[in-house]
Amino acid sequence: MRERSDDSVDRARAKTIEERYAVVTDAMSEGVYDWDLRRNRLDVSARLAEISGFSRTEINADDWTRRIHDDDLKGYRAAVARHFKGQSFRLQCEYRIQRSTGDFIWIADTGRCLRDERGLAVRLVGAIRDITGRKIAEAKLKSARYEAETARANLADALESVSEGLVLFDSEDRVVLCNSHYRSYFAETVGEEIAAMIVPGALFWDFLRAGYQRGMLPIVDQMGGFEAYVEKRKEMRRNPQEPIEQLLSDGRWLQINEHRTQGGGIASVYTEITELKRRETELAAKSEELEALSSQLSKYLAPQVYSTIFSGTGTTAVAARRKKLTVFFSDLVGFTSLVDRMESEELTSILNEYLTEMSAIAFEHGATLDKFIGDAIMAFLGDPVSHGVEADASACVAMGRAMQGRLSELNRRWRQKGLDYDFQLRIGIATGFCTVGNFGSEERLDYTAIGHAVNIASRLQAHADPGGMMLDAETYALVRQHLGPAEELHLSVKGFSDPVRAFSIAPPRESPGDVVGYHAPGADIDIDLDALAGDDRAGLAEALRQALAQLEKTD
Questions:
Q1: pLDDT at 360 (0 to 100)
Q2: 159, 339, 351, 416 - which has most CB atoms within 10 Å?
Q3: Under a CB-based contact definition with an 8 Å cutoff, are residues 110 and 245 in contact?
Q4: Which residue, among 423, 431, 372, 448, has the nearest Cα to 396 in the 3D structure?
Q5: Which residue(s) pair with 523 in the sheet?
């Protein structure tokens, strides 16, 4: 009940955020879009529909691309590709798009993608601004040096009609002309006195320094101080490329686009992007939440299943399919008898350590862990990824061998901690067609496999010798060239009317002298000779000689 209540709270919170987001986007002067790349679905704000001249239902991702001017389409696609590949921090592109009335307008498209756990772009969220006026103004700026004073006056009027800050500098970084919006950034942040310094002929670095001294540029000191900042900005102005983002002391963000003029000067466009930065912060927070959630969810799913779901190649629908699988069952012999003899904390520690080690081996061999049933493990190979029936069967048998070997190491480790008991692992493996997929309800799903091979593997595990492995006939036929001869049996098992043909695989014997052990009250010795290096062997030999001398002296 608590879980459902939490889900209700989360849904209500998400709905509230969505409603607030809708109000904000409708109130903005910029149009906002959300492009779901997996479904190729484009959601746009009312403002963006107004800019394009089409209704919100008439705009989709494919139609939007078709409306881009032929001369700008290549550049747009290149910018999108760079961003999706992670070569740019955000999408920033200016291009022309055809409105419903047939005319073209210039827009600035700024966005940022949301990526999945593999780094693949799954959504693109961005904002569209109508920059037709700015483009006209820029064109006029570039030709201003070659026009008469009347044209200069007309250009100044055009600058004032633009909502962004525009300023033209000559080759010595002195102001040629600017609009009132540019001066307002200084006036609103550090006062009219500094804004009054911005007149034709004023040196850019002089009034920028005055603004810095009044605290206008809070992050400049983090960049090594004002002089270092000036040198960096001069270098950027010599070869303008990427837009510059500037934080002001009143919390506003400006994006600065600089262009070289034919006369060697600089035309600068200052655009306020405070709202876009806020949305980026929210998007980053959402991304972190999704990453944290997916990380937690991954603990409850096999890596293959988790990968297919979060890469978009899988599905969470109630559905199943027929596939040939190699199914694995294992049981820890003797564990049940310890339940009443050990404290629950110690028992839990041993079981968790055992399952952790066995899970790691299963993942190494490409197995899908179906479930844990106490100390028992069910897994299968062949779905969602298969390397071929023979390869899957060989990997499954190798996985079982690796688990038995790892259990021997765990037994030695547990003995050193005082557990006077050696566990053995018995295994059953069968190959055949199964129904595999999502079973359950729309609210709760279980990814598992059912079928003849599952039942056979479970029964074979119950008949296997402690420390041994039992294979069905098909599995043995697939892997016999790697295993060699085995004891053939015909077993009468529960649920099957006819005897089941199976092959018993004995546990591998350790070569003589590989491991030396002795355990008694007052002595607990385990020596793995293969693991000892030369110096360690010499040290151990000396310690044993001293111990032997003490033993003989005591006798």
A1: 92
A2: 159
A3: no
A4: 431
A5: 520
- pLDDT the model gives residue 361: 94
State the burial class of residue 4 (Cβ atoms within 10 Å of its Cβ: 0-12, 13-18, 19+). exposed
How far from 69 is each of 53, 65, 99, 215, CA to CA, in Å? 16, 9, 11, 43
Low-confidence residues of the chain: pLDDT under 70: 1-28, 144-148, 152, 155-156, 290-320, 442, 507-526, 528-535, 554-555
Please list, in sequence order, all residues whose beta carbon lies within 8 angstroms of the beta carbon of residue 265, skipping any fewer than 6 positions away. Answer: 145, 168, 169, 170, 171, 176
Q: What is the chain's Cα-based Rg?
A: 36
- 8-state DSSP, 1: -
pLDDT value at residue 511: 46
Contacts of 463-466 with C-beta under 8 Å, sequence gap 24+, read 463/428, 463/489, 463/491, 463/493, 463/502, 464/426, 464/427, 464/428, 464/504, 465/426, 465/504, 465/506, 466/333, 466/334, 466/424, 466/426
Write out the H or E segment, with its range, that includes residue 461: helix 452-463
Q: What are the start-end ranges of the E strands in 5-63?
A: 31-36, 41-44
Contact call for residues 124 and 37 (beta carbons, < 8 A): yes
Element housing 503 (H / E): strand 500-505
- Residue identified by tokens 């062949």 is 382
Find residue 142's DSSP bridge partners: none
Alpha carbon distance 373, 329 (integer Å): 10
- Residues listed for the chain: 555
pLDDT score of 48: 87
Token output for 174: 């002195």
- The label of the residue with tokens 């039992």 reads 470
pLDDT at residue 512 in the model: 44
Helix %, strand %, coil % of the chain (to 5) = 45, 25, 25
318 — phi, psi (to 5°)?
-70, 105
Sheet with 175-178, side-by-side order of all strands: 175-178, 165-169, 266-272, 253-260, 244-247
In sequence order, what DSSP letters do the residues of 258-301 get, joined into one string? EEE-TTS-EEEEEEE-HHHHHHHHHHHHHHHHHHHHHHHHHTTS
